Amino acid sequence: MHALAHVLARFPEEGSPVRRLYLKNAYFRSVCEDFALANASLRRFEARPDANLRPEIGEYREILDELERELRWFLETADVD
Length: 81
Prior knowledge:
The protein is mainly alpha-helical. It has one domain (3-77). It has four helices and no strands.
């Protein structure tokens, strides 16, 4: 899944601002890419047979929470016109 698609799936109500920011702000794109990579890594760890023993799952959830807060901050403060 493309980085933009991950963010749109998480913030479906913010589709237009997400797309505009993704096109015009390199840092926002970078955060979107980090969000997608962390999401994919979390899913891989959750799919492992020893998932309940993997500390990475909690770590990736924390990373995703931080990235989500950063994405939300962008959406709340950025001028997307």
